[in-house]
Amino acid sequence: AQSVTQLGSHVSVSEGALVLLRCNYSSSVPPYLFWYVQYPNQGLQLLLKYTSAATLVKGINGFEAEFKKSETSFHLTKPSAHMSDAAEYFCAVSSSAGTASKLTFGTGTRLQVTL
Amino acid sequence: GAGVSQTPSNKVTEKGKYVELRCDPISGHTALYWYRQSLGQGPEFLIYFQGTGAADDSGLPNDRFFAVRPEGSVSTLKIQRTERGDSAVYLCASSLTPGAAYEQYFGPGTRLTVT
Questions:
Q1: Distance CA B85, CA A10 (A)
Q2: How does pLDDT run across B87-109, given as a tens digit for each residue?
């Protein structure tokens, strides 16, 4: 069984400030971890993924995340927020065992960026 | 190239009616997934196809839900005797092959409202 917990359903930052969105996972096998972004009335877009290579993963739009096994965490960060980053962000986990690849998502964090 | 498309974008139906939701995956993608996203929640897995066969339907909530992919491309999610609790956004995703390491590309979703 696998699950994801996203702490903070809403996060508000000023433009130019650090973005930190938290994600903790639970998995009985080594996990694959993903961050997706969802803009209003659009589908989910992959930001980045961890598939057991480097623990620090760089994604699109300046986002990155670090896999910390000891903390079962995969927090998403961006050094400087931009207004266009305002969206819903979802962390997801998948199993690396076999070919099963269904994603289990967290409940999401809505990021607001203010001037 | 074309992404995942879903039709209709919005569907309003009366309680007890039958609905069909269509998904056109990216050409050449062998794996196809259906998820359901209720208001304020992350997407929840419903079913996954590898080619024409349902490889994992463990997420279908009950026997009112059924999905097909007869030719290994387009898929249809069918819901019988709809209930108000079925109201949600139904998301389709496809990936080149199955396997957790492969990115799932999401469509914009079909918003189903049961009145």
A1: 25
A2: 999 999 999 887 777 889 999 99
Query: Are residues A110 and A12 in contact, defined by beta-carbon separation less than 8 angstroms?
Result: no
Amino acid letter for position B51: G
Q: For residue A53, give the DSSP letter.
A: S
Chain A residue numbers touching B95 (CB-CB < 8 A)? 101
* Among B42, B102, B106, beta carbon nearest to A108: B42
Tens-place pLDDT, residues B14-66: 999 999 999 999 999 999 999 999 998 999 999 999 989 998 999 999 999 99
Q: What is the dihedral of CA B9, B7, A37, A4, to 10 degrees?
A: 110
Contacts of A12 (CB under 8 A, 6+ apart): A111, A112, A113, A114
Phi, psi of A71 (to 5 degrees): -105, 0
CB–CB of B44/B89 below 8 Å?
Answer: no
| Interface contact flag, A101 B98, Cβ < 8 Å | yes
The C-alpha atoms of residue A101 and residue B59 are separated, in whole angstroms, by 13
Beta carbons of A111 and A9 less than 8 angstroms apart: no
Task: Extract the tokens encoding A46.
Answer: 């992959």
Nearest-Cα residue of chain A relative to residue B39:
A107
Quick one: how far is CA A66 from the chain centroid? 10
